[in-house]
Amino acid sequence: TDCYVNNGKPECCLDDSSECPKEEQPCNVVSSTPSPTSVPVPLLGADYCTYSPDTDCYVNNGKPECCLDDSSECPKEEQPCNVVSSTPSPTSVPVPLLGADYCTYSPDTDCYVNN
After folding, report:
1. Dihedral of CA 25/31/33/38: which sign?
2. Is pLDDT above 60 for 1?
3. Residue 4's pLDDT is what?
């Protein structure tokens, strides 16, 4: 519809009694405003700028600076984290898997006196 008045096709395509020329006919729509151009949208997960934010790694909304600045391109390799932590992050203590050893079995009061 941006180029031809009749459903976006040249007249010859809509008239079975005439044959279309080999070369496509020029547009017959006169527009005073240019049609909007589509801006390519990056595929989510295709590069590190489309990953979900990582606020533990990047100060600025969880993204590297280059991802937030349209005037610059990001390097192919993801930039290193820029979060500086003054306190060490806590390490998780492994929780024993129930049933993995005899200390996680249910109590056996017939065998052991304490408990």
Report:
1. negative
2. no
3. 72
